[in-house]
């Protein structure tokens, strides 16, 4: 039996080698490729799918919204109908099929992602993305309504000052950091004790030690233990390749350069609900890896 098994392995190996040596043959376009072509290779068809993703439309709506003639719109709509992405109801309104709904959603997400990375192309090309988990890179389009804030030659603390000003109005603060800024311990002391902000921070052990050196340790201990205050500290053992703060009304997102140094001069800022939701998901990702600190 053992001999038969060996021969079988040899035969399978030979078959595999034979398959690998076969020349590659280009296959005919499949239904999948046709659907990709329908939805992405025409600006008009893509725009129609995105527009219908917001609801049913009459033919005249396409003329108004997309700025095309009825003849042009009808031609594109018929192609989408043939691909089972669009249909016309009994009232002669156009709508997405169930398949069309799925494709339109993914298409919209894809377009949003392109908008994010191309609007601030240099920022995304020159920074380390390893601090963002794959699941949230897939949702990078949620940051489309954001702005890139940069220091200038005459205002070298522009990013820092803007962050501090925004933070002072926040009621709920969630932060992640592997960098230490000397001003922050006193700032957070003020936010917690005077403004009763709800604060949770995840930092590296090195940053925590620096915080304890600079801050009033009794204040920190009281703030953690006293029910009248809302402060929770967490640490992670491994480095974090990002530094960001998400609050009840804004997201401030900073990153490390590809070379490994933190970029203090540029920050992604957004007040959009989807961006804030993205930031909260990123915070929860790191929170799962962290241990709570008790002083």
Automatic annotation (TrEMBL):
Residues 156-288 form the Methanogenesis regulatory protein FilR1 middle domain. SUPFAM superfamilies: Winged helix' DNA-binding domain. InterPro entries: ArsR-like_HTH (IPR011991), FilR1_middle_dom (IPR013561), HVO_A0261-like_N (IPR057527), Tscrpt_reg_HTH_AF0396-typ3 (IPR016490), WH-like_DNA-bd_sf (IPR036388), WH_DNA-bd_sf (IPR036390). Residues 36-116 form the HVO-A0261-like N-terminal domain. This is Methanogenesis regulatory protein FilR1.
